[in-house]
Write a structure and sequence with these properties.
The structure is a single chain. With 446 residues, the protein is α/β, with parallel strands linked by helices. The protein contains 11 helices and 24 strands. The protein folds into 3 domains: 175 residues, FAD/NAD(P)-binding domain, CATH 3.50.50; 126 residues, FAD/NAD(P)-binding domain (3-Layer(bba) Sandwich); 122 residues, 2-Layer Sandwich (Enolase-like, domain 1). The chain starts with a strand and ends with a helix. The longest helix has 15 residues. Strand 5 and strand 6 form a beta hairpin. The strands form 6 sheets. Strands 1, 2, 3, 4, 5, 6 and 17 form a 7-stranded mixed β-sheet that branches. Strands 8-15-9-10-11 form a 5-stranded parallel β-sheet, covered by helices on one side.
Length: 446
């Protein structure tokens, strides 16, 4: 059967690419192929184990596709033939395509440490039956060890703690979330975790998983043994590129499918987006290891549109993060101060802190702290970090826009912002503007 556009992969990137292709190609025939009967919402997976309570309550609805006139086929893919423009399905069916979009995602990294094959050692898979099994085990566990203190790790730890288990995080860096935040924000996040009774082992690595057939403890490089009925591995992902490799497509230096700024692969009629695709930084264009659902959907909107004749271009990944720990929002966009300096920037920072209502006696008033990082020479914004009120989860998106538009500290200090006593900080104390103003004052004084 022939389709103008075939998309392989049914998670965030694949669905977005297919729906975008429909918008830009209203008369085109579009088909999405995925191997899973049901698809988890990627960012919601940790919340299955506490807040949401079931894998079935964290699903991407098929109506996103069928309601937009996209055909859905549930099947594995056994191969791609770029010469004949055919996709071979595991079911035996063959699909002919005009344009092909690969959104094959990624696979959790499983470290090669002794005992990792034991029962009750789990990685974070986007697999509904697998997650249902893990949820059942979590509900009966007394001790849970999470290996990895990034976003997935800390969110898993907090949600698992809600089931009453003793929860520990093992993180090899000096602080949790250290790949994203400057130290002072990491410390705030760790305080929020410890306040919930979560034990942190930072600057530590898991050297072995101990026990018989099932896990009983995690041995750390320091020699300490941490009791564990369950181990959750949250240390990153690896791009799924086997289909692309077998089809002869180029692979990039970061082991993702090589793509250009238009998400086009080494084959003119094949695009790639999401975790399987190579990433390039907004800050200089070097390869990036960032893999986020927000990046995946941005790339998918480019790939889906361009597969239907548009000319959208990827500016590179900025990296916008948000999480909530102990009721406190932690958000970041772009480069933190430490990373900016490592990349060779001479930086100036500005910080501002105030309640997110005015006056502070308004219901819901919560402190909100903003830190901005600028290139000292050009005064262009490089990044920002926010901690405090939940409204920081949306404010960081404004920071991302400012980074994308390469706004200067002067421009940000004179932003016209909408404020309201029940919704935002005072226009006098508005954190984003005042942080930019503080950075300007430092620049002028130096």
């Amino acid at each position: 059967m022939y389709y103008d556009v075939v998309v392989i992969g049914g998670s965030a990137a694949g669905v977005t690419a297919a729906v975008t292709a429909r918008r830009f190609g209203p008369g085109k025939s579009i088909c999405l192929v995925r191997k899973e009967e049901k698809v988890s919402i990627p960012c919601g997976i940790p919340y299955i184990f506490g807040t949401v309570g079931s894998p079935e309550k964290n699903l991407l609805p098929d109506t996103l596709l069928t309601g937009n006139g996209v055909d859905l086929k549930v099947s594995g893919v056994s191969g791609i033939d770029p010469k004949t423009h055919e996709v071979a399905l595991s079911s035996g069916e063959r699909l002919e395509y005009g344009k092909l979009i690969l959104a094959t995602g990624s696979t959790p990294i499983v470290p090669r440490i002794p005992g990792v094959e034991k029962q009750n050692v789990f990685s974070v898979k986007k697999d509904v039956p697998y997650l249902a099994d893990l949820l059942e085990k979590v509900r009966g566990a007394r001790n849970i060890v999470v290996v990895g203190g990034g976003f997935i790790g800390v969110e898993f730890a907090e949600e698992c703690r809600k089931n009453g288990a003793e929860v520990s995080i093992v993180e090899m860096l000096p602080h949790c979330l250290m790949l994203t935040y400057d130290e002072e924000f990491c410390v705030m996040a760790e305080d929020a975790l410890r306040a919930q009774g979560i034990q942190l082992y930072t600057g530590e690595t898991a050297s072995a998983i101990l026990g018989g057939d099932s896990v009983e403890a995690v041995k750390l490089a320091s020699g300490r043994e941490v009791p564990a009925d369950i181990v959750v591995l949250g240390i990153g992902v690896s791009p799924n590129t086997d289909l692309a490799k077998d089809a002869g497509l180029a692979i990039g230096p970061g082991r993702g499918i090589q793509v250009d700024r238009y998400m086009q692969t080494s084959d003119d009629d094949i695009y790639a987006c999401g975790d399987c695709a190579e990433k390039y930084s907004f800050f200089g264009g070097k390869p990036s290891t960032l893999r986020l659902a927000s990046i995946a959907t941005m790339e998918a909107r480019i790939a889906g549109a361009n597969a239907c004749g548009a000319h959208r271009e990827n500016p590179g990944v900025i990296g916008v993060f948000s999480t909530v720990l102990g009721g406190t929002a932690f958000s970041a966009a772009g480069l933190n101060e430490k990373v900016a300096k490592e990349l060779g920037f001479s930086v100036v920072t500005g910080q501002a802190e105030a309640v997110n209502r005015h006056p502070g006696s308004m219901p819901g008033a919560t402190n909100l702290r903003v830190k901005l990082v600028f290139d000292k020479a050009s005064e262009i914004l490089l990044g920002g970090e926010i901690a405090g009120a939940l409204s920081g989860g949306e404010l960081i998106n404004a920071v991302s826009v400012c980074i994308y538009q390469r706004m200067t500290a002067s421009q940000m200090a004179t932003l016209q912002v909408g404020t309201h006593p029940a919704l935002t900080a005072s226009p006098v104390a508005y954190q984003l503007v005042n942080a930019a103003e503080q950075a300007l004052m430092k620049t002028r004084a130096s």
